Structures are given as C-alpha cells and as structure tokens.
Amino acid sequence: MPSGERLAGKVAIVTGAGSRADGIGNGRAAAVLFAREGARVLLVDREPELAEATLAMIEEEGGEAVVQQADVTADEDCRAMAAEAVSRWDRLDILHNNVGIGGRGSVVEVDESDWEQVMRVNVTGMMLASKHAIPAMKESGGGAIVNISSISALRPRGLTSYSTSKGAVIALTQAMAVDHAPDGIRVNCIAPGPVYTPMVYSAGMSDELRDRRRHASLLKIEGTGWDIGNTALFLVSDEARYITGVIIPVDGGTILRGPAR
Ligand SMILES: NC(=O)c1ccc[n+]([C@@H]2O[C@H](COP(=O)([O-])OP(=O)(O)OC[C@H]3O[C@@H](n4cnc5c(N)ncnc54)[C@H](O)[C@@H]3O)[C@@H](O)[C@H]2O)c1
Q1: Rounded to two decimals, what is the model's pTM?
Q2: Could you identify the atom of ligand 1 that is nearest to the CA of residue 73?
Q3: What is the residue extent of each domain of the chain?
Q4: Of residues 111, 86, 100, the one with CA closest to residue 12
Q5: What distances in angstroms separate CA 137 from CA 93, 215, 243, one per listed residue?
Q6: Residue 18 CB–ligand 1 contact under 6 Å
Q7: Strand 11-15's sheet: what is its strand order?
Q8: What CATH topology corresponds to 11-248?
C-alpha cells in the first residue's frame, strides 16, 4: 500500500521515468514520490529497461505503476501514452514533462543538427506530450502539468542550445497555463539547479567539478533528484490548487550568486 494519500485516486504520466544510470534522476524520483502518495503512474521512457528499474522501486513499496515505451518526439507515441493511461485507469490527472537532453557551446560553436535535436527533444517533446494529455485531463475534470526547465534558462553559461530550449519551456508553461486554466488544468515549471543526478555524472564527473557544483549554491549543499521530485509532488497535489504559470528555481539559491565561471 502507498504510504501517503496526497495523490490518492489520481493517474499520472511521468516522461523520462528511467534514469540513464544507477541512481536517482529527476524523473525517477518524481515517479516514486507520486506513487508513494497514491497515484497510479505510467512510467514513460524511450528505453523501457531504464523505467523497469523505477517500476521495481515502486512495486517494492507497494505502489502501482506500468512501464510504457515511448519517444516523446513522436506524435503517435505521445497519443498512445495518453490513451494507455485512460484505457488502463479510466482517467488522467497529472503529466510530468521531465525528458530533456543537454547541449553545449555558443551559437558560433553549435552544430545545426545538434541544435535541432535539443529543440526537438526538450521543447517539441513537451508540446506533443501535453497535446495528447490535455484532452484526457479535461475529460477527467482538470489536472496538473509540471514542465522541467533549468536555471540555465535564467542564468546561461555556455550551453546555448540547452539554455534556449529551457527558456522555451518557460514560455510554453506560461502559454499553456493561460490557455488551459479554463479547463481546470494548472501548468507550472521547475528550474532545477546543478543537482547531482545520473544525467550529469553518467558521462563522468571529477570530484573537483562535483564540489564546485555543490559550492555554486548559497546553501553549499548538493541538490538531488529528490529535491526536484518533492517540488513536483507539491505542484501536482491539491495543496497547489491556487498556483499556476509559475517558474520555481530549485537550486539552493544558485541563481542569486555572481559569475561562477
Ligand atoms: N541534473 C541536473 O543538474 C539538471 C539541471 C537542470 C535541469 N535538469 C533537467 O532534468 C531533466 C532530466 O532529469 P533526469 O535526471 O530524469 O534525466 P535522465 O537523463 O536520467 O533521463 C531520464 C530518462 O529520459 C529518457 N529519455 C531521453 N530521451 C527520451 C525521449 N525522447 N523520449 C522518452 N524518454 C527519453 C532516458 O532514457 C532516461 O531514462 C531534464 O529535463 C533536464 O534538462 C537536470
């Protein structure tokens, strides 16, 4: 049995619910926390075996979830994931748009096809997932969407394609919040800071860089996927019923610090 009831009776889709390596990514953490609070969760990932590990964590705690293979850049896959949630559980209340990939370099350095791929995954993917989830949420009487941006959108540092895509996620959040408030759908955005997740350490990270990232925050502590997941849990719960269209940095105060190069 789930240990909490903050999302009891609700059905959620989490995109990128796996983690690219062992450990707790932002999507995995959100999926586990949603299930712990009573939601039934569709664990969407392009690589299903990565989401299977998240499923095992949820089932170990007595939660309910199912893995769905989908690439969020494919319209048909996004249509299928909303349809699967509804046919399996009769409703859809929550969409956690977590998938995102990195991109490096200035506009002078960036390769055009890499730029387009970052925009496609980070922006078009969220649009397509939302396009198919929103009608199902409307049918269910409303819902809540969380889009994952990054403080790179608010304080860019040499990751221009990534920062630009994450800026678009903020604008997308605000546009969706305005357009779908009449449907009873709240749309909010989290801008994570330099949290220590498989996304950043799976390609190798020196102890020195890890320490520098920790010290980038005012609080001098290391953020984790759980910090992002707990914020998402609040935003999709009824405790946030009066909150829509906001961008919440979850970064230990990193954006308030001076240049970090
Ligand atoms: N870790 C950080 O420091 C940090 C900082 C700011 C923002 N973020 C954001 O957090 C989010 C990622 O969090 P995470 O820790 O879960 O990442 P992750 O890299 O572990 O990815 C989670 C999953 O997404 C899946 N995925 C990738 N592309 C996909 C696609 N097209 N369709 C379906 N699934 C796909 C991967 O297979 C993986 O299992 C991203 O949006 C990222 O930009 C992270």
Answers
A1: 0.97
A2: 31
A3: 11-248
A4: 86
A5: 5, 41, 17
A6: yes
A7: 64-69, 40-45, 11-15, 94-97, 143-148, 185-192, 247-250
A8: Rossmann fold (3.40.50)
Look at residue 8 and give its three-state secondary structure.
coil
Q: Provide the residue-wise pLDDT of the chain in tens; the chain has 261 residues.
A: 788 999 999 999 999 999 988 899 999 999 999 999 999 999 999 999 999 999 999 999 999 999 999 999 999 999 999 999 999 999 999 999 999 999 999 999 999 999 999 999 999 999 999 999 999 999 999 999 999 999 999 999 899 999 999 999 999 999 999 999 999 999 999 999 999 999 888 888 899 999 998 889 999 999 999 999 999 999 999 999 999 999 999 999 999 986 644
How far is the centre of ligand 1, averaged over its atoms, from the C-alpha of 200 (Å)? 10
Residues 6 or more apart whose CB falls under 8 angstroms from that of 12 comprise 31, 34, 39, 40, 41, 42, 93, 94, 95, 96, 236
Token pair in block for residue 5? 């009831």
Ligand 1 close to Cβ of residue 99 (< 6 A):
yes
Q: Could you tell me the distance, in angstroms and rounded to a whole number, from the CA of residue 182 to the centre of ligand 1?
A: 30
Taking 3-state DSSP, the helix, strand and coil percentages for the chain, each rounded to the nearest 5, stand at: 50, 15, 35
Binding site membership of 194 for ligand 1 (Cβ less than 6 Å): yes
At 68 the three-state DSSP class reads strand
For a mutational test of ligand 1's pocket, the pick from 41, 197, 213, i.e. the residue with the most ligand atoms closer than 8 A to its C-beta, is 197
Cβ–ligand 1 distance for 72 under 6 Å, the answer yes
Token pair for residue 157? 């540092």
Write out the catalytic residue numbers.
162
Distance (Å, rounded) from C-alpha 14 to C-alpha 98? 7
From the CB of 20, is ligand 1 less than 6 Å away? Answer: yes
Strand partners, 159: 105
